[in-house]
């Protein structure tokens, strides 16, 4: 489990084929202190397992499925990635619950400067958009961000200078791919409502009826 608060950016040392997948090697920063083989680390929003540690470099096995369903396959030596170690049980939750299981790959549609901030429009599939709400949370390349507005075919974000400086979002250009993960709480609520509305005898009841019958409303 992660929070979407990025600890550091690391450089890619190499991404080389290995079997049907690949081995990703990163040049580690101070956030790697205390890391052990078997630890989970979110790499640009993708939960990966440390497989080896040597000479300031951490290696990860990346499966063929992960390469297919995320943007990691486009990495090359010198690329930067967002890094977040897994949340400790006694840690502080400052962002939102992020699992590191990417729902889909989105694409930066446009970037516009607005005073001291940047407005980004992100193209996303319905598999992600169905879980998003205005002012809700979404993880973009592992960064916990607030959705400004959900729109046809995507959503918009406002990026403050601090976030742009300490994460890869500040280096993105229109057309770049990004890993997207919707808020897991939103997914559970969506699933709960969908199951309630489709239950035998539900008669297509609405959200309020489903919540009322389950005791969440009076």
Mind explaining what this structure looks like?
- The chain has 218 residues and is α+β, with helices and mostly antiparallel strands.
- The chain folds into two domains: 8-85, Elongation Factor Tu (Ef-tu), domain 3 (Beta Barrel), CATH 2.40.30.20; 104-185, Elongation Factor Tu (Ef-tu), domain 3 (Beta Barrel), CATH 2.40.30.
- 17% of the residues lie in helices and 39% in strands.
- The chain contains five helices and twelve strands.
- It has helices at residues 64-69, 126-129, 161-166, 184-198, 207-213; strands spanning 8-18, 21-27, 40-43, 46-54, 57-62, 80-85, 104-114, 117-123, 137-140, 143-151, 154-159, 177-182.
- It has a six-stranded antiparallel beta barrel. The chain has a six-stranded antiparallel barrel with strand order 7-8-11-10-9-12.
- A hairpin with a 2-residue loop joins β4 (46-54) and β5 (57-62).
- The two termini are 34 Å apart.
Short description:
The chain has 5 helices and 12 strands. The chain is an alpha+beta fold and 218 residues long.
Quantity of strands, as a count: 12
What oligomeric assembly is this protein in?
single chain
CATH class of the largest domain: Mainly Beta
Q: SSE order in H/E notation?
A: EEEEEHEEEHEEEHEHH
Quote the distance from N terminus to C terminus: 34 Å
Domains, number: 2
In CATH, the architecture of the largest domain is: Beta Barrel
In terms of per-residue confidence, which ranges show pLDDT below 50 for 5 or more consecutive residues?
none
Mean pLDDT score, rounded? Answer: 91
Rg estimate, integer Å = 19 Å
Query: Please, how many helices?
Result: 5
Reading side by side through the largest sheet, how are the strands ordered?
1-2-5-4-3-6
- Alpha-beta classification: alpha+beta
Annotated CATH topology of the largest domain: Elongation Factor Tu (Ef-tu), domain 3
Strand portion: 35-45%
**Biggest sheet, open or closed, and with what strands and sense?**
6 strands, antiparallel, barrel
Share of helix, binned: 10-25%
